[in-house]
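Review form for a predicted model. The reviewer records the input and the model, then writes brief findings.
Reviewer: anonymous (R2)
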Amino acid sequence: MFTTHDDLTAAQVIALENGHLIQTYARAPFVLSHGQGMTAFDTEGKAYLDFMAGIAVNALGHADSGMAAVLAEQANKLVHTSNLYYTIPQAQLAQKLVKNSFADRVFFTNSGTEANEGAIKFARKFARAAGSDHKTGIVCFEHAFHGRTMGSLALTPKPQYQDAFKPLMPDVTVAPFNDIAALETAITEDTCAVFIEPIQGEGGIHPANTEFLKALRARCDAVGALLVYDEVQCGLGRTGDLWAYTASGVNPDMMTLAKPLAGGLPIGAILATERVAAVLKPGDHGSTFAGGPLITAVANYVFDRISQPQFLAHVRETGEYLKERLEEINSPHIVEVRGRGLMMGVEFDIPSADVIKKGYDHGLLMVGSGQFVLRVIPPLIAEKQHCDQFVERLGQILTEL
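Model under review:
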């Protein structure tokens, strides 16, 4: 009989982890056991107000009853088939993503970095299909984060992530973010694709301005390069719009998604126009697990919730209130508050890691974005009362620091 050994103490669990897992994560000094809504609980019974949502993943919070019901129902039907067979939930989810975006086609993956890896391949194939074998260059931007597998790692220009794993994928150019004048030099006839986050997530919560995205679209069109939006973190309601790019009115050729799509279960997606999708043939790309019936059944439920106009309006309203409250904090440590919807960045003159660590004492789960920025990305179900609690505790932390 399977048992999870719920009687283990936190110290025992931490010892098990330290003794058996490869140590690539710096974890908090406690063990989370369960959650409900906006709150997570550790094994000692302490409650934490969750304002990082599993790094922008738990869009509907913890233990959502609708998600649990769909998960249980589908688990009793069909969990996995591989992509050699049609399944209803996958087809339905693809239809919804197409119907509600610029795209004509979808390819499912298991994560955001896999989605970006696939988009790199699709862009290379698109260029070669047009007879441009020389057109292999890819442009990304300073402070970008597109993943940590070998292709996407080359598009994540941070020495901490890259240096130990060089040489990386070649033909990558890193351009300054929001710098229109630099586009002509960075994007050339040898460029097959340009990757950009409409709002940089790990790079400090910096939005790409509309004028820059318009110039970027025009430059890509001028040289025949594909424009790829990485909305792994900023997409699917996080900004108060279903997609972050729609605020600019500038459409991409491809878009990558992941984090909140199945509310905590692993899934990613590449959305593409027909002209991009048309160059791909059976065998060009694949995944054993991606788009399986269990994950896509839950993703259908999550997407239906998030895409409702009243749900998005709630995110916008709560996000505006959160920004106002954050700006009211009277602390010399706050340099700037920026962002959109429930994707806020609070820049400090002290390391954000100090604020996050102190937050555990105050019952807060938070995450950083670079060395000096706190990434405020709660579940999208957050209410104004939760924002009040968060701001009050954050203010106390800054006073103590």
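Findings: Residues 68-306 form a domain with the Aspartate Aminotransferase; domain 2 fold (CATH 3.40.640.10).
Further findings: The mean pLDDT is 96.
Recommendation: see findings above.
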